[in-house]
Write a structure and sequence with these properties.
The complex is a heterodimer of chains A (423) and B (157). By secondary structure, chain A is an alpha/beta fold. Chain A is 43% helix and 12% strand. Chain A has 17 helices and nine strands. Chain B has 157 residues and is α+β, with helices and mostly antiparallel strands. The chains are: A alpha/beta (423), B alpha+beta (157).
């Protein structure tokens, strides 16, 4: 398979402008600015079939198309580099090793909607990544890819690097915008959508790092070539971050539709010697876990994961072998969401803490018979009842763990102790 | 002692505010600057930021308490932030946590009496393929083993 997203990362000094340019970097931007109108660029990305890589999988070109062309207000593009979904570490690789691909993609997105100010919102903990990006932005500015009259095209753009300060919810696009406006990262009610009412109430496009980093290749090689990769509805390649009980953890670029079982066993080397696979979360901690017997025939694309009862999400694959306690795993994830809930909506603010508390007491031998139905009731009351998708993201994995490993949970309650880690 | 940016930081404050289309958007970088300058965000520091950002103190307080990287208490010179989220937990983060606490003689959220170390447990830092991991001030330390952690702590003591 030809690499699209990871094509540069192993080159020496891949983070520098010189290395990026020597590998064809910024060639696509030059072409876009010289030969393509903004409308034509949007059409090209629509034709590529590229879908947002942050988790929701919304078609990128369509998202751009929602931005009104005749708005008197300024327009903004925001690159979402707030990578915080547990099990996901792909954007960090791109930020540190191929920052110019992100910058080139950001310029293209901004040109497409005719924005003159773009932001890269990078999570606060990525100090090293922020330095790499800052340097790359300076280089791009010096070389005339940013600033006034880019490459003589008459088009102007500034990119502002903005560092977060530690809050998972700022990865949610409207939470991110609230944070960028200088406040708490509280998500906003949609509609209106950011495309019309985003940053400071102005038309705004928020795209994930990986989405933007895909753009230069698509424009350079053509939408048709990109659309020929992958499946009918899931085009191109996707990055998967693999962690947990697996022999070769890391970031992998995979053609959409690749067999999931083969990926885990052959590409990633399978679970450690002598152990059996117990479960795997395919799309980051907010997605439902799959039991070992559920991965047969599953393919790595949006539709196939959905048909299997989970979601592709951010592509954060967390593998658990038989040594993992599923009660403890569920508790760990519930604790994450209890800690990260922004507190705006009651079902999420209260429910996440309830789920954490219930899982904790089951794991510590204090579970009650009615606890499992209580978790399902709490998660069911969070689902669909919150402003942003965080509520669902907390509720779905909790319910999935209980439903799919119910016997293990019941055994913990019956024996009043952890039956896996004690063994 | 009245809390106030020295001239150098005031210059940086102006530069930061100028970068943004609206002054209010500069809140996080300004709070970060204040934290660098004053060590942590005391009530006086929050008052001061509210004044120079021309916004109510309650708003600044709301922002400071929302984000984990903004500290309202002093932290040690070496701030250890150990990831506790699932991938790191599966890789053995709990053992590493126990070791750090035993070596330093403090619990999570505490600072050693000499002010050298603070230990925090934090949520996912996007280093899941190389867990267990911790952030020590700005830097990531990955694929931690008990021996590796013991060595790091020994060097800093």
């Amino acid at each position: 398979m030809e690499k699209i997203l990871l094509r540069n990362i192993d080159a020496p000094d891949s983070h520098t402008l010189a290395a990026y340019r020597s590998r064809g970097g910024y060639r696509a931007l030059e072409r876009a600015l010289r030969e393509m109108s903004p409308e034509r660029l949007i059409e090209e990305i629509k034709a590529s079939g590229l879908r947002g890589r942050g988790g929701a999988g919304f078609p990128t070109g369509m998202k751009w198309g929602f931005v009104p062309k005749d708005s008197p207000k300024p327009k903004y593009v925001v690159c979402n580099a707030d990578e915080s979904e547990p099990g996901t570490f792909k954007d960090r690789v791109l930020i540190e090793k191929d920052p110019h691909a992100i910058i080139e993609g950001t310029i293209m997105a901004a040109y497409a909607i005719q924005s003159h100010t773009a932001f890269i919102y990078i999570r606060g903990e990525f100090s090293f990544g922020a330095k790499v990006l800052e340097k790359a932005i300076d280089e791009a500015m010096q070389a005339g890819y940013l600033g006034k009259n880019i490459l003589g095209s008459g088009y102007d753009l500034d990119i502002i690097l903005h560092r977060g300060a530690g809050a998972y919810i700022c990865g949610e696009e409207t939470g991110l915008l609230s944070s960028l406006e200088g406040g708490k990262g509280w998500p906003k009610v949609k509609p209106p959508f950011p495309a019309t009412h985003g940053l400071f109430g102005c038309p705004t496009v928020v795209n994930n790092v990986e989405t933007l980093a895909s753009l230069p290749w698509i424009i350079d090689q053509g939408a048709a070539r990109y659309a020929a990769i992958g499946t009918e509805k899931s085009k191109g390649t996707k990055l998967f971050s693999v962690s947990g009980h697996i022999r070769r953890p890391g970031v992998y670029e995979v053609e959409m539709g690749y067999p999931f079982k083969r990926f885990l066993e052959e590409d990633c080397g399978g679970v450690p010697e002598g152990k059996k696979l117990k479960g795997v979360i395919p799309g980051g901690a907010s997605m439902p876990v799959l039991r070992a017997d559920e991965i047969d025939g599953v393919r790595m694309d949006y539709e196939s994961f959905q048909a299997a009862g989970t979601l592709l999400g951010s592509g954060g694959v967390i593998v658990m072998d038989e040594s993992a306690c599923m009660v403890r795993a569920a508790w760990n994830i519930a604790r994450f969401f209890a800690h990260e809930s922004c507190g705006q909506c009651t079902p999420c603010r209260e429910g996440c803490h309830w789920m954490e508390k219930i899982f904790r007491r089951i794991e510590h031998g204090e579970g009650r018979k009615e606890d499992l139905d209580l978790v399902l009731s709490v998660s069911g009351n969070i689902m669909g009842n919150t402003i942003c998708p965080f509520g669902d993201a907390a509720a779905m994995p909790a319910a999935a763990f209980v439903k799919k490993y119910r016997e293990e949970f019941e055994e913990h309650i019956r024996q009043k102790r952890c039956v896996v880690l004690a063994a | 002692m009245a809390v106030k940016f020295p001239d150098e930081s005031l210059k940086r404050f102006d530069e930061i505010v100028r970068r943004y289309p609206k002054k209010e958007a500069a809140m996080l970088p300004v709070l970060r600057l204040a934290q660098e300058e004053f060590g942590y965000l005391s009530a006086e520091a929050i008052d001061y930021v509210a004044r120079i950002m021309e916004t109510p103190v309650a708003h600044v307080y709301g922002v400071v308490t929302f984000y984990t990287m903004l500290n309202m208490k002093p932290v040690g010179r070496h701030h250890i932030q150990l990831c506790r989220t699932l991938p790191c937990a599966l890789a053995g983060a709990e053992k590493i946590s126990a070791l750090i606490k035993a070596k330093l003689g403090i619990g999570v959220g505490e600072t050693t009496p000499d002010g050298k170390f603070t230990v925090s447990e934090v949520e996912c830092l996007a280093s899941c393929g190389s867990g267990p991991m911790m952030q020590l001030n700005d830097d990531y330390y990955e694929n931690l083993t008990e021996a590796k952690v013991a060595e790091i702590l020994e060097k800093l003591k």
